[in-house]
Amino acid sequence: MANFFKHPTALVESDEIGQGTRIWAYSHIMKGAKIGEDCNICDHSFVESGAIIGSRVTIKNGVSLWDRVIIEDDVFIGPNAVLTNDLWPRSKKSDWQIVETLIKQGATIGANATIVCGVVIGQYAMIGAGSVITRNVADYSLCYGNPSRSHGWVCKCAKKLVFDLDFSECQCGCKYQKIENKVILK
Known about the structure:
By secondary structure, the chain is mainly β. The protein has a single domain, classed as Hexapeptide repeat proteins (UDP N-Acetylglucosamine Acyltransferase, domain 1). The protein has no helices and 25 strands. The protein is globular, with a radius of gyration of 17 Å.
């Protein structure tokens, strides 16, 4: 008996689904995909063989995750966000190369954002809705636009950080230090 919930219309071919995960209507999880515990995979999502999803991840409606997309724990991916795994796609191209994409722990990807393969989205980074990510995103960075640029920093709790010199303390109590173009949780 499965230790996860599968909606009757979902097609789940993988044996590697963590306990407490919920897979909703019309989603397709291919054999070889790995999904951690307590995830929420919403309607009309697709997870290809070779995709790896950590625990406590939310994948909203209409998201496709391709081979070599790696998502760490506690990530949120908004509705209709787009991820890729080929930098030079062509139909029936025999020499295509899959390119890995990594979304680190706690990151948020806004609705309709596009993540071009080969990038790393840093821990607790926040990507605004509709953004196009074409390069790596630093930990705790707030990025939006097309192409996306950093517009500041966010706390683990998702509030925007305000720095006094190189230090910031969020309302939630987390403290941060800015060193060059990086923010570090103290």
